[in-house]
Structure prediction request, 307 residues.
Amino acid sequence: MSADVLRNLDLNLLLTLDVLLQEKNVTRAASRLGVTQPAVSAALGRLRRHFGDELLRRSGNRYEMTPLAEQLAATTGAALLGVRRVFEATPTFDPVTADREFTIIMSDYSAIVLGDHLATAIEREAPGVRLRLQEQGAEAVNHPMETLRSVDGMVLPHGFLTDIPVLDLFEDSWVCVVAAENSQVGDDLTLEELGELPWVVTYNAPTAFTPAVRQLQMLGVEPRVQVVVESFSAVPFMVAGTNRVALMQGMLAERLAPSAKVRILPCPWEVVPLAEGFWWHPMQQSDPAHLWLRAVIRRASVDLSSE
Prediction:
């Protein structure tokens, strides 16, 4: 898009477009935006003329998005966040007076073991700052640069991303878990038993996997996968009351074992530990607010490691 076109655009239309595509209803969009219905209808008209497309097409008593609108809906949120970042930029950052939100992508594992420490540290230092923990999915890991443009960072173990700024946070061990009443397994597991027992694993895809499972496969043990879940916290509950086995992060296993009624056992091989990091887009490298955020995450990780 040329500079001339940008000069003639009202950025308020971007906000209206985003809300319209979420609500697919002029009246509800007007209510969310705090403006009149005629004002939103007029904005929709301007948007239709700009794109040369209906965007929202009436179907009975409701609206449906056109193919172009479907395409736009996937990008308007990120575009709005980019605009917001531009106008939120300041030469300095004062956490005591700051009023803003930081969005960090985390797995449920990271949210459980680190999230509370981070939220507590932020509340203590910056009472007006809000923390949004966004669910981590394979798409975020597969397209990190695109993902990191629209958030403040991502907590992810080393081994998945390269050539992206990272702050080392903490290490965790890997452990095996079996049901508390599983009589097939004693106080120790063998590699042979791990090859025979049914498994619960997480993700189990080419670009989304449990690193320790890959380590086990490199030793020649191929887990007999019976259940695949896309949540680390669900693992022990899928093991409970069965003869299944699973690998879990040690700190998460310690927290969930009592309620899930599972036993924690050491892995019968020398497991490479999990090393968690905080990753961010290079454009945020020198941003004062982001520098403060990284320092707080580092302090929260130190608090976690000292437990």
In short: The mean pLDDT is 90. The chain has 14 helices and twelve strands.
